Amino acid sequence: MLELGIQQVQVSCVSCLWFGACVCQVSIPTTTVGAPPQVSQHQGHLRAREEVELAISQTAQQLGGYADVLLLHTPGRPLGENATFPSCAAQGSWKECRLLAWRQLIRAQQDGLAKEIGVSNFDCSHLKEIEAAGLRMPLYNQIEVSAACPMNEELRFCQVAHGIHTLAYSPLGGAYTPKLREQLRTSVSSVAARLGRSSEQVLLRYVIQRYDAVVLPGASSVKHMAANLDLFRFELTKDDVEAISASAPRECAYPMYQPGQIP
Ligand SMILES: NC(=O)c1ccc[n+]([C@@H]2O[C@H](COP(=O)([O-])OP(=O)(O)OC[C@H]3O[C@@H](n4cnc5c(N)ncnc54)[C@H](OP(=O)(O)O)[C@@H]3O)[C@@H](O)[C@H]2O)c1
User: Fold this and answer.
1) Which end of the chain is less crowded, N or C, counting CB atoms within 10 A of the terminal residue's CB?
2) What is the C-alpha to C-alpha distance for residues 238 and 209, in angstroms, rounded to an integer?
3) Which DSSP state fits 92?
């Protein structure tokens, strides 16, 4: 990866928080740690704060002192998941947990443990909570965006209004959805043939042009990594973008993280 010139990669969540959020970072990976300690619900706010602090400091330590980008992963547990609410999630809402964790991320940035901070899978209502609390807004929101999973318009508007950049995960349809990936490939094959590019390069370029987003394709093969770095020497026409929007299948790889799914 380093030989290819890749400077930023996303490592998996190294430490999950007891109320369902994880802290992830985008940086050069070192190692991962095991499962987080189990914390019982009645330990309340103080313990939650300690858990967030621990997750952040472990992450920074593993990365040699600081993370380039530290994200708060998921605003809570999706609706329908068989989960009890922790005590910081008062009245069936994860709001207090989110704000508690976000304050810790702000502090981590002030302390030099993270260069930039952001969130993941937040919808507009979650972002507005941060604004209403008078806290610094996230620089990034990492969300699923692909030709098959269009960005929610309200969220898009909300992010533009707050200067929040989109980091698009699963931009090729998701690692665990091979059927969807194949459908996507097929839907752009004629554009790819005309441009002399692979279907995946066209799909990534589509997300960049259509949503002004940073794409985060997952790739274990060096050939794919090299192809995914070569996205800025060709362009789709306006007609290409419109045709792909109209013909691509509609299915998100992670419907449980779509706006409105996490209270
Ligand atoms: N924040 C969240 O909730 C969340 C959720 C899901 C994923 N993510 C993150 O999003 C990133 C990517 O998502 P993802 O891996 O699920 O899905 P993805 O990027 O849509 O798809 C990954 C798949 O596409 C293949 N691929 C990549 N580049 C290719 C190319 N140029 N040509 C052909 N095939 C190519 C990969 O194959 P090879 O591996 O064989 O190269 C892999 O099977 C990861 O960093 C992941 O951690 C975040």
Assistant:
1) N
2) 9
3) G
Nearest in space to 144 (alpha carbons), one of 86, 47, 215: 215
**DSSP conformation class of 3:** T
Extract the runs of DSSP E, i.e. beta strands, from 147-263: 165-169, 214-216
Averaged pLDDT, 223-236? 95
Distance from the alpha carbon of residue 187 to the mean position of ligand 1, in angstroms: 18
Does ligand 1 have an atom closer than 6 angstroms to the CB of 121?
yes
Pick the range with the lowest mean pLDDT from 69-73, 141-145, 159-163, 238-242. Answer: 69-73
Q: Write out the two tokens for 263.
A: 């209270």
- What is the C-alpha to C-alpha distance for residues 207 and 225, in angstroms, rounded to an integer? 17
- Residue 42 C-alpha to ligand 1 middle, in angstroms? 38
| Any ligand 1 atom below 6 A from CB of 258 | no
pLDDT at 39: 32
pTM over 0.85: yes
Residue 260 DSSP symbol: T
